[in-house]
Design brief:
InterPro entries: 5'-Nucleotdase_C, 5'-Nucleotdase_C_sf, 5_nucleotidase/apyrase, Calcineurin-like_PHP, Metallo-depent_PP-like. The protein is α/β, with parallel strands linked by helices and 479 residues long. The protein has helices spanning 23-37, 56-59, 64-73, 82-85, 90-97, 145-148, 158-169, 184-193, 260-277, 297-310, 333-339, 353-362, 366-369, 452-460, 463-468; strands at 6-13, 42-46, 77-78, 104-105, 110-112, 125-130, 133-141, 153-155, 175-181, 199-202, 213-215, 218-222, 229-238, 242-252, 280-284, 314-318, 329-332, 346-352, 386-389, 391-395, 405-410, 413-414, 420-426, 442-446, 474-476. α3 (64-73) packs antiparallel against α9 and α10 (297-310) packs across α14 (452-460). It is elongated and about 85 Å long.
Length: 479
C-alpha cells in the first residue's frame, strides 16, 4: 500500500439460491479473509437470489433460514434478486426484512405501487465507513415489471436509478459500489455509460468472472452461482483522489472447513422446516404416476388444473415440471415441493390453432422432450412432452416428423388452424424457451403469487378431477 492510502477489502457473493450445504464454508472463508485484511477494513455484500424456495429450509421457514445465515455470516449490506422479490409476497418480505438486522437492504428501483415509495425496510443507497474511507452503495434488481405489478410493486428503470444515485453520492464518498442484480450485459453497459462508478458487483445471469472486467473507470465483478465461489476485491484509496488501485479475484468455497455456528443455525431451521412441510395436504386413493416423455395421470392433473385455474379452453404444461409421481396415501407439502420445485407461475394466453398444432407435433419428438432446460425459474432436468387438457389428440407414432398428428379435438369440435383459443399454461413458455410457438401467444396474463404446486394442491383434493386424470388425451392410431 502506498503512503497516505487506505486499504479496503470487499467480500461478495451472489445467486447462492439457498445452497445451504455451502453456506457454512462461505462463512468460514469470509472469516479468514476478514482476519487477513482486518475486519475494520472489510465490507461484506450479497447481490441477491440468496433465497430459493425449491429448498425446504427456505420454503418451510418462508426465508427465515436465509436471513439467519446472512446475519450470522456478517453481511453488511444486501440487495434483492428476483427470487426474493417475485417468489415471496410483500407481507412476507416485510416480515423478513422489516425487523432490525445487522445488514442494510439497499434497493433503489422497487417501489410499493400503492404508496409510491420504497418499502420501509429498504434504502436506495447508503454510505458506510471503514477506517475513514467513505463507501457509497447503490442496489438495483432486474425490473420484471409485468410480474412485479401483480404483487403490488412498481419497478423503476434500474439504470436511471443508478445514474441518479451516482450523481448524489459521488461527491460524498471515496468509493462507489453498485450492487447489481441485473446481469452481465447490463453491468457492462452501466460501466461504459455511467461515469463515477468504481466497482460493479454483479449477479442474476450466474456469470463467473475469474478476473474482473475493467470497463471505463469501473471494475466489473461476479462470483458465479450456487455458492461455488465468492469474490474478493482489494482497493487502495487515497484521500481526495479516491480509488488508486483495484484488483479482484474469486475463490472456490468447497475446500473450506464449515463454520460450526452457521451449520448449527441451518440444522435448527431445517428441523423447523421439516415439521412445517410434513403436514398432510391431500390423501390419494390411487397412485398418480408421472412420466416426462409420455402422457401420465399426474401430468394430466396439472394440465387440467391450469385450465381451471385461469378459466381457459385448453390446459398445456411440459411434463418436465414434474420430477416424480405420487403413490397412494398421504401427500405432504414436502412431497409437492420435491416433485414440483420450480417457482413457475400459471398464465393465460391466446394461441391460434396453427401455433397449438406446431407445439403438439414438437412434443412428439425426442429432440424436444429430452431437451435440457436451464434457468427461467425451471428446476427440473428436461423439457418433457406436453401434458394437455381440453384436447383429444390422435397421432401415428410412425408418421413423419411434424406430421404425426392425424386429428385434434378441442372439446368435441375439430381444431381450426386460424381460430384463437384461450390457453392455461405456464409463464416459462412466454420467455421464448421450450415450445417456441407457445411463446407467440397474445393477451398474456400472469397469475402470481401462485406456483404450479399450488395448482396441484387444489387438484389433488378434487375427486372428480383425479378420476378424470386416467382418461387418455393422446391416442395412438395407425394410418
Amino acid at each position: 500500500m502506498t503512503r497516505n492510502c487506505s486499504s479496503l477489502r470487499i467480500l461478495h457473493s451472489n445467486d447462492i439460491h439457498s445452497h445451504f450445504e455451502r453456506m457454512p464454508r462461505i462463512a468460514s472463508l469470509f472469516n479468514r479473509l476478514r482476519d487477513e485484511a482486518g475486519a475494520e477494513r472489510t465490507l461484506t455484500l450479497d447481490i441477491g437470489d440468496h433465497m430459493d424456495r425449491m429448498r425446504p429450509e427456505t420454503e418451510g421457514t418462508q426465508g427465515a433460514a436465509n436471513i439467519d445465515v446472512l446475519e450470522a455470516t456478517g453481511y453488511d449490506a444486501i440487495t434483492l434478486g428476483n427470487n426474493e422479490g417475485l417468489t415471496f409476497t410483500a407481507d412476507v418480505l416485510q416480515e423478513r426484512y422489516g425487523e432490525e438486522h445487522g445488514f442494510r437492504v439497499v434497493l433503489a428501483n422497487m417501489y410499493e405501487a400503492a404508496a409510491g415509495r420504497l418499502p420501509e425496510w429498504a434504502s436506495p443507497s447508503c454510505i458506510l465507513t471503514r477506517q475513514g474511507v467513505r463507501i457509497g452503495l447503490i442496489g438495483v434488481t432486474a425490473d420484471f415489471s409485468d410480474f412485479y405489478s401483480l404483487l403490488g410493486w412498481h419497478m423503476l428503470d434500474p439504470m436511471e436509478q443508478v445514474e441518479r444515485w451516482v450523481k448524489e453520492l459521488r461527491p460524498e464518498v471515496d468509493v462507489l459500489i453498485v450492487m447489481s442484480h441485473l446481469g452481465l450485459r447490463k453491468d457492462e453497459w452501466m460501466a461504459s455509460h455511467i461515469d463515477g462508478i468504481d466497482v460493479i458487483l454483479g449477479g442474476h445471469t450466474h456469470h463467473l468472472l475469474e478476473e474482473p472486467l475493467r470497463i471505463g473507470g469501473a471494475l466489473v465483478c461476479a462470483a458465479g452461482k450456487f455458492g461455488q465461489y465468492v469474490g474478493v476485491v482489494d482497493l487502495e484509496v487515497e484521500p481526495g483522489r479516491g480509488v488508486v488501485h483495484a484488483e479482484g479475484r474469486v475463490l472456490p468455497v468447497d475446500g473450506e472447513s464449515p463454520d460450526p455456528g452457521i451449520a448449527d443455525i441451518i440444522e435448527r431451521r431445517a428441523a423447523e422446516a421439516s415439521r412445517v412441510l410434513e403436514r398432510e395436504v391431500a390423501k390419494l386413493a390411487s397412485p398418480l404416476p408421472s412420466e416426462w416423455d409420455r402422457e401420465s395421470p399426474l401430468g394430466n392433473v396439472l394440465a387440467a388444473g391450469l385450465r381451471r385455474w385461469v378459466g381457459a379452453d385448453i390446459g398445456l404444461v411440459n411434463a418436465g415440471q414434474l420430477l416424480e409421481g405420487l403413490p397412494a396415501g398421504t401427500v405432504t407439502a414436502s412431497d409437492l415441493l420435491r416433485l414440483c420445485p420450480s417457482p413457475i407461475n400459471p398464465c393465460r394466453m391466446r394461441l391460434t390453432g396453427g401455433q397449438l398444432l406446431q407445439a403438439l407435433e414438437e412434443s412428439l419428438l425426442p429432440e424436444y422432450t429430452g431437451k435440457p432446460i436451464y434457468g427461467f425459474g425451471f428446476r427440473g432436468k428436461v423439457l418433457g412432452t406436453l401434458c394437455v387438457d381440453g384436447l383429444t389428440v390422435e397421432y401415428d407414432p410412425a408418421g413423419p416428423e411434424l406430421g404425426k398428428i392425424r386429428s385434434v379435438l378441442v372439446g368435441d369440435r375439430p381444431l381450426e388452424l386460424e381460430a384463437s383459443y384461450k390457453i392455461g399454461t405456464i409463464d416459462m413458455f412466454t420467455f421464448g424457451i421450450g415450445y417456441m410457438s407457445i411463446s407467440q401467444g397474445t393477451e398474456v396474463e400472469y397469475y402470481l403469487p401462485e406456483f404450479l404446486r399450488d395448482v396441484l394442491l387444489r387438484e389433488l383434493n378434487d375427486a372428480q378431477g383425479l378420476k378424470d386424470s386416467t382418461r387418455m388425451r393422446w391416442k395412438k392410431v395407425k394410418i
